[in-house]
Automatic annotation (TrEMBL), chains A, B, C, D:
The protein's name: Methylthioribulose-1-phosphate dehydratase
Entry keywords, A to Z: Amino-acid biosynthesis, Cytoplasm, Lyase, Metal-binding, Methionine biosynthesis, Zinc
Class II aldolase/adducin N-terminal domain: residues covered: 19-234
Organism taxonomic ancestry: Eukaryota, Fungi, Dikarya, Ascomycota, Pezizomycotina
GO biological-process terms attached to the record: L-methionine salvage from methylthioadenosine
EC number: 4.2.1.109
Function: Catalyzes the dehydration of methylthioribulose-1-phosphate (MTRu-1-P) into 2,3-diketo-5-methylthiopentyl-1-phosphate (DK-MTP-1-P).
One of the record's GO cellular component terms: cytoplasm
Keyword Lipid metabolism: no
NCBIfam families (alphabetical): salvage_mtnB
Amino acid sequence: MSTNEDRLVQSDDPEHPANLIPSLCAKFWTLGWVTGTGGGASIRDDDHVYIAPSGVQKELMKAEDLYVLSLPETLKRHNGEGPIRPSSRVYVRSPSRFKPSQCTPLFLSAFTRRGARCCIHTHSPHAVLVTLILEQAGESEFRINNIEQIKGFARGYPHAEVGNLGYHDTLRIPVIENTAHEEDLTEFLEEAMDKYPDAYAVLVRRHGVYVWGNSVEQAKGQCESLDYLFQIAVEMRKLAIPWESDIKPTVPKNSLKGQ
Amino acid sequence: MSTNEDRLVQSDDPEHPANLIPSLCAKFWTLGWVTGTGGGASIRDDDHVYIAPSGVQKELMKAEDLYVLSLPETLKRHNGEGPIRPSSRVYVRSPSRFKPSQCTPLFLSAFTRRGARCCIHTHSPHAVLVTLILEQAGESEFRINNIEQIKGFARGYPHAEVGNLGYHDTLRIPVIENTAHEEDLTEFLEEAMDKYPDAYAVLVRRHGVYVWGNSVEQAKGQCESLDYLFQIAVEMRKLAIPWESDIKPTVPKNSLKGQ
Amino acid sequence: MSTNEDRLVQSDDPEHPANLIPSLCAKFWTLGWVTGTGGGASIRDDDHVYIAPSGVQKELMKAEDLYVLSLPETLKRHNGEGPIRPSSRVYVRSPSRFKPSQCTPLFLSAFTRRGARCCIHTHSPHAVLVTLILEQAGESEFRINNIEQIKGFARGYPHAEVGNLGYHDTLRIPVIENTAHEEDLTEFLEEAMDKYPDAYAVLVRRHGVYVWGNSVEQAKGQCESLDYLFQIAVEMRKLAIPWESDIKPTVPKNSLKGQ
Amino acid sequence: MSTNEDRLVQSDDPEHPANLIPSLCAKFWTLGWVTGTGGGASIRDDDHVYIAPSGVQKELMKAEDLYVLSLPETLKRHNGEGPIRPSSRVYVRSPSRFKPSQCTPLFLSAFTRRGARCCIHTHSPHAVLVTLILEQAGESEFRINNIEQIKGFARGYPHAEVGNLGYHDTLRIPVIENTAHEEDLTEFLEEAMDKYPDAYAVLVRRHGVYVWGNSVEQAKGQCESLDYLFQIAVEMRKLAIPWESDIKPTVPKNSLKGQ
């Protein structure tokens, strides 16, 4: 007989967070984003936060491997400023085989500071290479414009209703320095969120990227679009093509827009 | 009970357009062509045009997600010159979850101006990189010759019966500049179609490619062949090998051709 | 009721040539070897030669799409020197939907001149790039040594019993120039076979590669090993590492070999 | 009726070594690690050592294709110093279709000298390219630091309890020279194990890599993490970014670590 804890992750619905996280992570594994148990994903479903555990083979993860955290109870205990301390976290489900993910406080930042519904963390080689290229140039911000896929990003978190970025807009993703302990990234992630109120993603130098969204679909779509842009950016670098350019808009005689 | 609208996309036949579009798009997703909900595909089946909606995860798309447009009724309303305006489009099926694809007028151009049966739009990184390499050289035409895969293209749309391009022929694909609004590409796509009456594809700078065909198989085959050529072209560039070359035909003493 | 022709390709055995060719080609499609209906494969089973047709989507091919040719009857009609002319070929099964593959005479050369059981033709981008790199150097032979995967090749066709190449051996693959008509490659392929009696593969400039073997497993294994070497060779070129090197053998104090 | 030998590889449990080796190898094939029958894997289950045979297509391997060796009986016969000679090996299961893997003595070294439970051997192109880049620099050690994925490695074999490497630690993987006969690598592998008591992996120049672990999961995870690092290292080389760097730790005002 299943316990109450187990029932939290038992559902026939493929859209249930406990089924979605494993299916997403299996897909991400084939893309090279969560190799060697790296990376992870988390979904918030009302008061519950579902989180992939630490050290699990992401393409083999099962619903029963997931942690579930109570967000209201955790916030009640936290009752303060700064990142949510491990001691404040209230788990309503803790699989005995695993340990909680070191990404947990970073996922919680996306949920509490941005009202996100889903947060994805990848170790994508393209993301890491972009942070290395930027490091050589002494930069802490990835900027790219005039690539169609930029439209895959919402314009800004606080005003999601204003729609997505346009082709000529510059996508800006902050880069934070990596820390020895992953959870210690939280403070810097939150600083970057404050400094870039529009951003849906933060790159971590020599580590990977955190991407979130107002829905699982948006988080996944933005994560895919971003990885696509990182991939193209690395190739552009090899071909000595700059990431930013000044392109004059092309306008037809009779625009169909809005007709 | 299914409505009439639903019946348009319900079939057990895997070759039915409503089943083909999702299976094609799932395949294209694995190739990196339609990542982050980018790209799309459309099939014309007599009077009906089936179109993947905007913003759908292409590898998860279902038949029920598709729009279906009546081509004769749309043309009746259009009743004029230039791209078909959104207000002229007559949908016989509109899934409530989604919005119509911005690619719709471009797909319609392929169907009405070229009599195509299928049109595919990808954001393939290889295609985008080729347009960037050409941009650096100030060019608006991709040209490649003396690569076997060129034979994967029909010789020219108006005279499909003349067969495919030969090994020594030069494949020419026009590049149009990207516009802020995807539907505004239509005017330029049609101009390129007029200027290149033979072309089965148009590259869009910093965006991707549109490829069509007289059948789903031809459109898909040409799209695959083109992406293969773009991939090789990018690698050739890295290896400083020119895309065009002047190669003297090699002829055997006794040709088997036509025997 | 199935006809005699159909029975040739109907079997529940996954190792039957009519089932193996589609499963191999579906796998090759995922590797990018037979994209856009390019490439192909053929298996000889005693007197019958099974051949993928022209213009088929290789990942979707079915047993019923295959041609079957009678080798003894074809040779009886041929009754002469040089490549087997199309008019000499005797098909015992011809699917009406398709046309015979242009690769047919090349596959037959592998079967008749080398006693091969299986011949694979790919348009692998790695193979094409290697021929382009060699062309720039004015060379018509691919040579590589001191890479472990070279051991994946049999030492020489006439003396298969002597085993595979060693680590320090140099693998030599001739490159023939491409012809406008694929079947016209046959004469040059046979010349290369004569000149390189040991070779199990021939590269075709700007086109791809033909690889054969005494069994399906050997042909597939050698094709995979060769593509791996081509892939590494292209990367070595980008890193300015030569394909051939003079390396002194490393020998342990007490060899385990043969003990 | 199955023989005793067959029963050793018959189990419904997907975690049984006889099922795990084929499923792992099929996965590795899709990653390009065991192409062309190259590479292999072995699992120790108490007294039994399960080994993929020589010359098998790794993605098609079945449980029934596996060799099973008795470790205690083999060690009894060995009764001496240095690598375990082929004549000392006691097989409790020998499939007649195949020959024992040349990797056998190397796998046994990992099991006897390191107490490993699983050892994986790949011909990964990334691994080979890294050994070639190091060769050009006259080096026999791969060193990389300040990349998050380094945390995917245990700190050292003798003291597994001390946990994994940290972000700022330098991962060091020895490179041994390749030998004409794979089994002759054993002496050099064991030398490298002695010289690098912490290492969980040894690179073989122009050949590939051996990776092991205290469990199947650890061996697989470390193999994936290592290949990821090799892949990034090759790209870093192309972008002229050094593999080692001197980075000052970033520390937050209030570390969450250990709270």
